[in-house]
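Known limitations

Structure tokens in this collection are predictions and should be treated as such. Users comparing against experimental data should check residue numbering before alignment. To illustrate the layout, the record for Kinesin-like protein is reproduced below. The input appears on top and the generated tokens appear beneath it.
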Amino acid sequence: MRTLTMESSENRNALNPASTKLRLPTTYAATALATASTGLKEISDSQSNARAQMSSIPTKRAAHDSGVAPPDPKRKTLAERAGEPIQPKSQLPAPTPTSAFLTGTVSGASIVQLANARNANKTTTTALPRASSATGHRPTYSSTNPSNFAKSLGPSSRPPVTGLRQPSFSQSTSNRQRSISKPRPATSMSSHGPSRDVSVAPNQPAPTQPPNGIDVDERLNEVDAEWKVMKEAFNISLQDKKAMETAVQMAKSQVDTLELERQKLNERNELLQKEMDALRQQFQQLTLTLERQKMDHEYQLQNKSREHEHEVKELQRKLRDESERLQRINREEKDAFERQCRADLEGEKAKAAKEVQDLQQKLGAEQQDINKTLLERERELRQLQSQLDDLRSELSQEQRSKRALQEQISEMATTNGKLEARNQGLRAQIDFLESDSKQQSDSFAQMEARLREALEIAENAKQKLIKEETERRILFNKYQELKGNIRVMCRVRPALSKTEGNEAKIMFPDAKTSSAQIEVTGLEEKSSFGNINRKVLPFEFDRVFAPAVHNEEIFDEISQLVQSALDGYNVCIFCYGQTGSGKTYTMSSPDGMIPRATHMIYDTITKLREKSWTYTMEGSFVEVYNEELHDLLDGSNNSKKKLEIRHDDVRKQTTVLNCKTVALDSADKVEMMLKQAQNNRSVAATKANERSSRSHSVFILKLVGENSVTNERCEGTLNLVDLAGSERLKHSQAEGERMKETQNINKSLACLGDVIEALGRGSSHVPYRNSKLTHLLQYSLGGNSKTLMFVMVSPLEAHLKETITSLRFATKVHNTHIGTAKSTKKTIKDRSSES
Ligand SMILES: Nc1ncnc2c1ncn2[C@@H]1O[C@H](COP(=O)(O)OP(=O)(O)OP(=O)(O)O)[C@@H](O)[C@H]1O
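Generated tokens:
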């Protein structure tokens, strides 16, 4: 209901043309009304002016006198009458005939007054003022204000009647004369200046009674003049009357027009009223319809809402049912899936169990295979061991047979001597028997045959010896190969004096056992509980030499490698270890490896001559210092001669260009060479060791052997390397030039480790060229070579850290297996075919 009320008010507003879009057709009406009201106003003004004129008519009495009926006390204005229903023109009240003459009547009254005054003048001189005063009004010509008519009629054709002055009795005659003769000002009609006011103020004192003896003629003249003036005014009034009549006529026609307009407007108004009523009815109907529709809609809405609620409830119920159904299905599926899973699991379990069983069987089979393989390996190992033993026994047999052969040879030599002696005896006998020539010649032939026989035996023995030497070499190198082509041995030098400090706790293998393990008690370590522990670190090598072991025993171990060099292998023996660990002592001391090796080589060469082997031996001694090669045999220190490394890939040999090579044809020459090298070697003092060598020294011994009988030729190189100290940069506390040296040393040692590691991995690329040292030793490390590394260890507690580092490095090298070495030995035929 509240909505309805609001709507009703809205509808009301809608019908209000000012506030809504629904507009009444008022534009024309408003305009017409405005026009009409303007016109009506003018007419009303003019009428009011006319009334004013009427009211300004001097007296009622004058009007009465003139027989003119007084005007209606209250006449309706045109504007008032516009609202009244339109009357037919015939019903309209006829215009009052007097009204057209009002102005004229007024003027007539004035004229009567003036005539009376004239008559009165004739009788009494006071008549005029009295008549004037009796009216109470003076004729106010100014009241005939023409403005409204002027406005309605346009520019007036009538000359303005202004400037008409009421003669003033107080004025002097001359003045009056002047005022009569004076022309009216042009603007006096439009202006209401005081000059136009000819009326006498009511409070103006009445003219005094002229004294006796007044000139009557003069007075008559004056009256005549006034009469003329009055006449003139009368004429003017007549003109005015005519104009007014014309104006009245026009006004009437205007009134008619306006009346028509009013009628039209009334009609229109009625129409509009009807329209409005119709609209109002329409509006009411619409409101009712809307109300009805609204109620219908509300009813529908409620219905829909109920339906919707019902549907929602239905859907909820369905949803609940569906959800329950799905849950049930889900539960069923879940159960089924669980059952399936369980079954699958069981199956998988069974399968897995079966697989496990299979795997166990397989594993058992594999285990058996492995065991079998292991057994085979063990058998192989045993076979190898037995082979080795056989070889050893063969070797000892060979040595025995060699000794037997040597004995045989010596026996043969004695036999030969005996034969020689016998030969001499026989010759003596020949001389003796020359006399008996036949007997003598027979015995001579016998002797000769026996001699040939002996020589044949000797030759056979020699051939056998050479053959056996070849076989020995083969067997020996096979033995070497079985031992491994890179071997690592550890040597611990003795403590030189008690002043050196405390000795570290190092356990050496028992000489009786074949163990080659060294156990070093490590540095003190603090556990998380604050306990101080010292770990025992075991390191295993091919052999461990205790401090008491002398160079002689060391050399026994490496003599086989020296022999390999003589047999045409490239051999590299190097000493690795920290400064002061005994490298130089092992290598270059008077009974070190280098002198011993050369001595052994001399001995062997000498012996091999018997077996038709002739050897040449050349030695050179170079130093790698700050990654530069220096010739230790060149005392001149000529820096212009830069050493260059050249490799012969076919011969697997390395030569150093511009390097002095000494033919070592006697043992003395080796000693001299070593002394010279020792002198030239760069030795620099560091804080770690006063005599520490800051460079790697490499003694290169080239051995070329040829067998005149077998035409064999072999070319081997023995490299004996004394590496620079391996101490860490931090420990050495080196600075400046020393620091650079140490960095280069560490770098080249790291490169050596990298090369060995790459060889062990069987890498296709071995980084030989990363350092001068490895580049120089390219053909003596890996492939066609046999390598022995001595890791030198100091026994001192102070050097324990470096000792462990060195042992770890050596262990790494020891764990590396380098491929089989090959001899460069070839026959002359092979060599010629190659060339
Ligand atoms: N096995 C040994 N028996 C006796 N003395 C030894 C032994 N090993 C080394 N020495 C002595 O120890 C000292 C240091 O040895 P060596 O000069 O050989 O050390 P290094 O490792 O070669 O040092 P650097 O690399 O600085 O030359 C030398 O006086 C040497 O005589």
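For this record: Residues 1-210, 682-692, 827-835 have pLDDT under 50 and may be disordered. The pocket of adenosine-5'-triphosphate is lined by residues 493-494, 496, 577, 579-585, 689, 691-693, 725, 792 (CB under 6 Å). Please report discrepancies through the issue tracker.
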